[in-house]
Amino acid sequence: MALNTLFDNTQTAFKLKSDSELERAYFLFKMISKEPLVKIGTVATKVALNLNLPVEGLIRSTVFDHFCGGVNEKDCMGVVDNLYSAKVSSVLDYSVEGKQENAQFDATMQKVLELTEFAKNKDAMPFSVFKPTGFGRFEIWRKLSENEPLTTQEKGEWRSIQDRYETVCKTAHSCDISLLIDGEESWMQDAADDLCQAMMAKYNTEKAIVFNTLQCYRWDRLDYLKEQHAKAVAGNYKLGFKVVRGAYMEKENTRAQEKGYPTPICESKQATDTHFNAVMEYILDNLEDISLFIGTHNEESSYMALEILKIQSSTKKRHQSMVWTIIWHERSYKLQSSCSRLQCCKIHSFWTCKGCYALFNS
Length: 362
Ligand SMILES: Cc1cc2nc3c(=O)[nH]c(=O)nc-3n(C[C@H](O)[C@H](O)[C@H](O)COP(=O)(O)OP(=O)(O)OC[C@H]3O[C@@H](n4cnc5c(N)ncnc54)[C@H](O)[C@@H]3O)c2cc1C
What we know:
Blueprint: H1 10-13, H2 19-32, H3 35-50, H4 56-67, H5 73-84, E1 88-93, H6 102-119, E2 127-130, H7 138-145, H8 152-175, E3 178-181, H9 186-203, E4 210-215, H10 221-235, E5 239-244, H11 249-259, H12 269-284, E6 290-294, H13 299-314, E7 322-325, H14 335-343, E8 352-361
Parallel strand pairs: 2-3, 3-4, 4-5, 5-6, 6-7
Antiparallel strand pairs: 1-8, 7-8
Flavin-adenine dinucleotide (FAD) binds at residues 182-183, 213, 215, 217, 244-249, 265-266, 268-269, 272, 295-298, 326, 354.
């Protein structure tokens, strides 16, 4: 099959879905495209749940089952196994934001540890994931990134953050599960990058266990990547990177404007796309040193990665790295999205199931 028709093949895209599941998904999308119905439905659901009316079964068999992997890790396994039968792997993503207390950060770490242990020896779940601000206060990250001194209490908090990183990275290493660490706002990211680099130097000596994130809407990321590459070669360790475009563009531009510094964001969508593809290409050219996880829904970038890998495999270029991509067909947004939604569920208030498709695993 020609690569540029890969995402048009509905037979492959809907392979895991029965006709009745597709019809239900189609019906669901038709319903949620009607705004008044969504508003009424949301209010009615809240009222019914508050009155303890028996609506959970109905929710579960409609909206929930469509958008969510399950209510806990065990509950997700049906979806995970089903996806894996089509070589689509999953990441269970425990997502909490805006916490401020040490006990909450410890609880998040415990969940990440549980999910990492749970993923051990499960081929369908090769990754675990967390956010830096899930392990410590945003303000600590910001102060360190902007070279502001920490108070005595904050120094203690920083040591706790370092200990949490150490604990999860060590566990991921012993479970042989790769660990994706999310990228966040640029004004806290330097400290997160430095800590992540220290973890890579310690735990990526044989292969990439710890993965940092490169947000390619930031115009400085290719230079940063090259700098990290040189350090890793000199220090004899591997790099792992999740490559994304970035989720905080408006926030970044607004803050830069308010505080009067040049925006860290590329000047246009085209510039971001070019930069994303350049970062991806650099890593694909250096897979002997850097493992790649491509977090994109963009078809052009996905095709580009596939093309490069195809050429590399035909020229018998050998490497030990992994390349993963999120495939999400966005062009037609009706039935097509119903399938891809399940593969890459975005609802974070439940255990979610993010699918990724193993492109290459030599
Ligand atoms: C598995 C996975 C993990 C992720 N992890 C992270 C993470 O750790 N951190 C994070 O920040 N995001 C993360 N994301 C979100 C990701 O950044 C967004 O999905 C992404 O920005 C959407 O872009 P896209 O590559 O899918 O393609 P597209 O839809 O082609 O690109 C949209 C993106 O382009 C950029 N853009 C749009 N307009 C402009 C403009 N005018 N100028 C400059 N740039 C522009 C923005 O980044 C925008 O989000 C993750 C996504 C996935 C699927």
